[in-house]
Amino acid sequence: MMQFRRRGWYKHKRIGKSKRRMVGWRKPKGRDNKMRENRKGKPPIVSIGYKKRKQGQRIVKIYNTKDLENAKKGDVVVLGRVGKKNKLEIAKRAGSMGIVFQNINIKKFLKTEGKNESK
Predict the structure, then answer these.
(1) 44 to each of 4, 30, 36, 85, how far by Cα in Å?
(2) How many beta carbons lie within 10 A of that of residue 96, not counting itself?
(3) Radius of gyration of the chain (CA)
(4) Mean pLDDT in consecutive groups of 10 residues from the start of the chain, 119 residues
């Protein structure tokens, strides 16, 4: 597990070396702060992408309708980069199979595409 610590916590007794409550994350805000600038060799800053995946889950990327057969219950299903025509086919098939995607709302997508087709 990634631990995000306040900048300079290891230097000062009053903000971290012996006081765990003070070690907590504070965003670096200084003008010349190397950590804020994401310099090489400096500790990471809290940002999107550090979320821990739940135990036992595997990510399944879907690029076509054949890939839907690989998805099992409990998997994290992600729709890959596909065109609108292929995405429509995948969404219809996944809706009938009961597969839930993490990065697309199937019902909403099919509803908007149904409106677009009628126009």
Answers:
(1) 7, 16, 9, 40
(2) 9
(3) 22
(4) 80 74 86 94 89 80 94 88 94 92 92 83
Residues in the chain: 119
With tokens 């098939």, the residue in question is 93
CA 9 to chain centre: 28
0.85 surpassed by pTM = no
Q: Which of 119, 68, 118 has its CA nearest to residue 96? A: 68
Residues near 50 by Cβ (< 8 Å), separated by ≥ 6?
Answer: 2, 4, 44
CA angle in degrees (0–180, nearest 5) for 99-101-104: 135
Joined tokens for residue 51: 């979320």
